[in-house]
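for ur thesis appendix - Signal recognition particle protein. copy paste whatever u need, i formatted it the way the template wanted (i think)
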Amino acid sequence: MAFEGLAEKLQNTFKKLKRKGKISEKDLKEALREVKLALLEADVNYKVVKDFIANIKERSLGKEVMESLTPGQQVIKIVKEEMTELMGGTESKIEFTSKPPTILMLVGLQGAGKTTTAGKLGGVLSKQGKNPLLVACDIYRPAAIEQLQVVGDSLGIPVFTMKTHKSPIDIAKAGVEYAKQNHKDLVIIDTAGRLHIDEDLMDELKNIKNSVFPTEILLVVDAMTGQDAVTVSESFNKQLGIDGIILTKLDGDTRGGAALSVRAVTGKPIKYVGMGEKLTDLEVFHPDRMASRILGMGDVLSLIEKAQENFDEKKAIELEKKLRSQQFTFEDFLEQLQQVKNMGPLSDVLGMLPGINSKKLKGIELDDRQLIQSEAIINSMTKEERRDPSLINASRRKRIALGSGTKVQDVNKLIKSFEQTKKMMKQLSSIEKGNKKGRFKFPFM
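the 3d part is after this line
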């Protein structure tokens, strides 16, 4: 989970502060020292940490904080505000041109995930009503073009390619022209990378830039490279001039220092973050929400958005009707499990709830593997058994366990869980009976 180590240390530090009725300058100094060490261990740039701590100290020593009835809470509020500002303050959106097509040029080092990100970005923006075209300009890396085509096919997004003897500049120009002729309002150019920044790479990127005049140049950076990510961002911005940053592999970086450093060092906003390997795992970067998650305040807005994306409202209404008429079956239960799984790893989903300790989620009973196991058990039932669980006697339970590669105890446990869920959902359905029409509800609750 992103920022896991940093989040745990900061939350422990502020827990101590909140317990104090009054905060002395010494208490504040000790707390800020712990914050400083936590940030440095998370691989946040030293100068960024120094300025960050200085700003918090200056604001926290003010009369309204030190004499407050809840000084600990006031300090945490200041830390959240400063951290939000450090990461950009507000969400930074893609600027679309009034005269299509909007041209987005993706740049970065080899291995940062540019090609996959190009597809992910196309997928995200197509959901916003855009009609994208992916342009394959990486003619050097083996199978780079084929990789982009596979990604494009998976998302239903066309990919423009040319014979490899053509230069990336020619391909980019022809791709933009093709987009204009075929009414594509968005062009995403996947450029070549290198293992390190060199003159040839920069010259080629500058030539593409000067040929197609991209609306935005987006730098794709691997968050797991820590301080190197900051160095790379600074260098690309200085030599090429970038408009925004996409951080990949943030889900695998327990330190997360790059996300807290690149905005401060380059002055350029983080626009998106890659939070997984699936082609849907690209999220808009919200500095305020990320700061809340790091400080253990949760991220309820993102959780609601995830749920709204993955839950079908019509099916939710149908489910409510079934609950009221006592017709909730294992088929409905399986559908709910699949929709929860679509929201991403359960630890990430639960981590968005306020007050949830990410460390404790590691031992949580209901994990992603259990969801897969539950699916296997339900799929091993006959249609009649799924619709009428009362048919599932001892011999049938043995057959289901054998068919799903599980134990009879696992089958028993799932049936018990189904009955409890059915009961709980019926209760919640009754509670929500008076809700206004059209109000969003979590179908799995």
